[in-house]
Design goal:
Elements: E1 10-17, E2 20-27, H1 30-38, E3 41-43, H2 44-47, H3 55-62, H4 71-83, H5 88-93
């Protein structure tokens, strides 16, 4: 992930290990590296929870990540794909997600 707002880059890797997903994060951001320690192992049943009960976002909040940080969303996509909750083929056809701000 490359965030043009903060100039940091992050690599997220997820590996399915039974009913648990092992998450590895490499980042140039210290806050993200602290966050990474809190989400090393996530159960499939946890990542499928709604946003307010999802450990991906709960731990992001506890780590004091900025609201505009894209990493938790990237962790969600990565873990969902590894768990089979979203199609890897679909994601490979649309490899980039972006937010476009338009002044009106």
């Amino acid at each position: 992930m490359i965030n043009s707002i903060c100039d940091h880059s992050t690599k997220i890797t997820a590996s399915l290990n039974g009913r648990v997903i092992d998450v590895t994060i490499e980042s140039s951001c210290g806050k993200i590296m602290e966050y990474a320690l809190l989400i090393k192992k996530l159960a499939i049943k946890e990542i499928a929870r709604d946003i307010i009960n999802n450990p991906i976002y709960i731990k992001a909040s506890e780590s004091r990540l900025e609201p505009n940080c894209l990493v938790p969303c990237g962790v969600a996509f990565c873990t969902w794909a590894e768990a089979g909750l979203v199609s890897k083929n679909l994601l490979s056809r649309m490899p980039a997600q972006c937010i476009v701000f338009k002044k009106e």
